Inverse folding.
């Protein structure tokens, strides 16, 4: 049975592998710069692991720089390719929300590629509301991509 726990240095290589496949193969994230294991932040990063196998991870950090944004956090939830569709996203999201609430976070933001319908549906099902659309915010794979912002007040 998969267990959610704080990420450790030993998890960083697996986290980078999950993230880098998404960077290389999708417009889910607009970056093209792959992540090195040494660059994975451990603060507010959790993994869902089945034994030694990392199935997915979450990150949480202030939405923008500056003290006014300290209680509004942007979240990332990524699952390994074979781990999608079985409820593991919920196993990552629910405790992330609870920990954020306990830390005094007021709201969570999910930034999604405009065409990422499965992610949008996931967040809407779990109480997020769409609060913004930035047309053609990102350039990747020779095309412009919209950015959707979804928010959940805790």
């Amino acid at each position: 049975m998969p267990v959610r726990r704080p990420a450790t240095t030993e998890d960083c290589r697996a986290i980078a592998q999950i993230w880098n496949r998404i960077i290389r193969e999708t417009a889910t994230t607009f970056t093209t710069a792959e992540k090195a294991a040494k660059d994975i932040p451990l603060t507010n990063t959790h993994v869902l692991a089945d034994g030694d196998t990392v199935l997915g991870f979450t990150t949480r950090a202030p939405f923008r720089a500056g003290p006014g944004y300290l209680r509004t956090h942007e979240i990332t939830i990524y699952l390994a390719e074979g781990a999608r569709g079985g409820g593991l996203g919920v196993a990552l999201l629910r405790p992330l929300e609870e920990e954020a609430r306990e830390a005094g976070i007021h709201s969570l933001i999910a930034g999604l590629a405009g065409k990422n319908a499965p992610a949008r549906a996931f967040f809407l099902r779990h109480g997020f509301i769409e609060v913004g659309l930035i047309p053609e915010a990102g350039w990747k794979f020779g095309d412009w991509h919209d950015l959707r912002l979804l928010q959940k007040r805790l």
Observations:
- The helical segments are 12-25, 88-102, 117-125.
